[in-house]
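Holo model, adenosine-5'-diphosphate. Inputs:
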Amino acid sequence: MEKKKQILSCIQPTGDMHFGNYFGAIKNWVELQDQYDCIYGVVNYHAMTMPYSPKKLRENTWALVFNLIATGIKPESIFIQSLIPEHAELCWVFNCFTSYGQLTRMTQFKDKSAQNKELGADSFISAGLLDYPVLQAADILIYKADYVPVGVDQEQHLELSRNIAQRFNNQVGKEYFVLPESLYTEVPKVRSTADPTRKMSKSAGEKHYINVFADEKRIRKQIRSAVTDTGDTPEGKMSPGVQNLFELLKASEKMEAHAQLMKDYEGGQLKYVDLKDAVADALVEISQRFIAKKEELNSNKKEVKNQIKYSSSIIRQRAQQTLKEVKDLAGLMNVKF
Ligand code: ADP
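Output:
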């Protein structure tokens, strides 16, 4: 049987999981598991590159693990980055194969350092923020990933990973690293229901995202108060808020309701309240399923944590093998103490 292609993707433990994250990334990850050999990393080292609280980081790391399992990721596919120190060690080796100038030109570095500067007196731009794409290259290449499901915003980082792999291969005179490719899947861009001109995101504040694990009342309230018409949409064009609600219905796979309500819209008879109720029903149905699964996991907290420590140790063996080979090729010592 042909070996399945390797997929690698990572997510930072930075707080709640919202429907933008779920429809835009996690749902796709769940579906990819059928076709590929998938590894998904909860990358806590990355979450240290912006100002953070150690206590919150630990809580968020475990919370994300539980959220991922509750939403359908197989526990054996999940690792916690800091349990696999080889990522950081490979990052060092890769630092020496990375152009400093290229790192300073990364759009995300420019954006995030500008964001940090806005914090004023607390402004602190760490070397970690500059170096984060190199650690990301290590995350990907250490498992010789064939494909990385990325959004457009990450394409530049993936290109950097390929540059590093190529430079390493040239230096050691061997096509050692696979050059990872991006895997594009059509995923929706979910907008904030409070302000449909911006994307649904945690960084904009609580009203700008809908937590996947929120209770029914809160979800219904957020959808009921979704902005529909702002009055500035050109005649005959659907407003961003209404578009977003239809998008959410489609992402929830409620195609029948979608078709019916779209017909109403086209006939000029759509009542926004009907569209909102349909969206709220769909999101609540999904979230209730996930909440039930999470309750089950929460009643076995210790077991789940042990399971993830174990899966990380199994995934680590692959990282250790790669690092051993890299050290051999790079002229470094490998000694078993
Ligand atoms: P946030 O903006 O809330 O901090 P992250 O940047 O941590 O979210 O995103 C984690 C993943 O979720 C990424 O793969 C990202 O592309 C996806 N994602 C985040 N927000 C959205 C959105 N509004 N629509 C679609 N996908 C999203």
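The chain has two domains: 6-187+300-330, 206-296. Residues 301-330 form the longest helix (30 residues).
Archived with the compound record.
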